[in-house]
């Protein structure tokens, strides 16, 4: 399930892309298929082992060019082990809502992105997220849960304060929103409830089949109840100072 719109966020051969907080690696895999050199970064070593295996499988199946590079790196989003300006593309999908010190993470994003580089940042949309919080205490108080609900204005203000130039935005995954409302209503860990299980099966079918009816319906609903907000930003070409220089130029 891809959240970033690669038509608005062009990625291709020659790009060095960081998937910050990659999780299962969905965006890293797509970027690699498009010819980018990819670093999948996350704090969860178990997730990264799975991503590494998928990188190897993609290469074995001839899905990617022999000239592309893909690797996984484990670490802390507040102190990444990369030199300043290491990447010309960065994806941060559904990460900042988990981090108490999100402005520090945004500063690290700014530091590792090269001047003139672009980033795609996604967070849960305000309205769907607000209802999830209202329906379930466990949804946002469990370890590793969400610590804040962003409005677009707040997210863009924090990115702009760091020095980013704000670009276009959109919403995604409207058809997934009812699933999370159901999950929160019946219990986030209740995988066997008939409503939750049935709707999940519908989503799997939709992802695999992509029928025109549901694709059109989702596009129409995304601005209203899209589960994710996506904001595209650029680091100014002449960016200097700020948090850059902390890790040197190794």
From TrEMBL:
One of its GO terms (biological process) is methylation. It holds the Pfam family Methyltransf_11. Residues 18-120 form the Methyltransferase type domain. InterPro entries: Methyltransf_11, SAM-dependent_MTases_sf. The keyword Methyltransferase applies. Keywords: Methyltransferase, Transferase. It is an enzyme of class 2 (transferase). The keyword Methyltransferase applies. It comes from the Bacteria. Its EC number is 2.1.1.-. One of its GO terms (molecular function) is methyltransferase activity. PANTHER family: METHYLTRANSFERASE (PTHR43591). This is Class I SAM-dependent methyltransferase. It comes from Lipingzhangella rawalii.
